[in-house]
Amino acid sequence: MKKIIFLILVILWMGVIFYFSSMSSSKSDGQSNGFIHRTVIKVVKVFKSDLTDSDEALITKYVVYPIRKYAHIFEYFVLYILVFLFINCYDLDLKRKIIYSMIVCVLYACSDEIHQMLVPGRDGSIRDVFVDSFGSSIGLLICYIIGFKYKKCK
């Protein structure tokens, strides 16, 4: 039963990633900028309440890129954990579970970037595959540390 639940979670999370990748560049940029104005700008205003519109634009300009990359890292960190939990249901040694989980995540990252090349205003980036793989690597590290203690699901 757990195997089916983990598989459903993997597929749903892949769907979330696919959904975000399917957004046109203007819609994706609008979401990023909206997030920055709802969070980052409000936090900065706590320390500097007299922000001008040009200050906000400058902050947005320098914060958008890192926030988008952290989003990639987070998406693939979660994906790795979910894939590992699913693969952990099979009778494999920890090394194979870790490697197979990473292969799934890297292949999905590659397919995601190819998919983005088909979306208006978006393009695929090998750099994003590396960023996604970094997020998966963080998940790998956590699964490796915890993996010795986590019992196989039934």
Please explain how this structure is put together.
This protein has one domain. The chain is 80% helix and 0% strand. The protein has 6 helices and no strands. The model has no long low-confidence stretch (mean pLDDT 86).
Count the strands?
Answer: 0
Oligomeric state: single chain
Name the overall outline: elongated
Distance between the termini: 7 Å
Order of helices and strands: HHHHHH
Q: Supply the number of helical segments.
A: 6
Structural class: mainly alpha
Task: Tell me the β content.
Answer: under 5%
C-alpha Rg (nearest Å) = 18 Å
The whole-number mean of residue pLDDT values reads: 86
Mind summarizing the main beta sheet? none
Proportion of residues in helical segments: over 70%
Flag low-confidence runs.
none
Tally of separate domains: 1
What keyword list fits this structure?
elongated, 154 residues, 0% strand, mainly alpha
Topology:
Elements: H1 2-22, H2 25-38, H3 40-47, H4 53-87, H5 94-116, H6 126-147
Helix pairs in contact: 1-4, 1-5, 2-4, 4-5, 4-6, 5-6
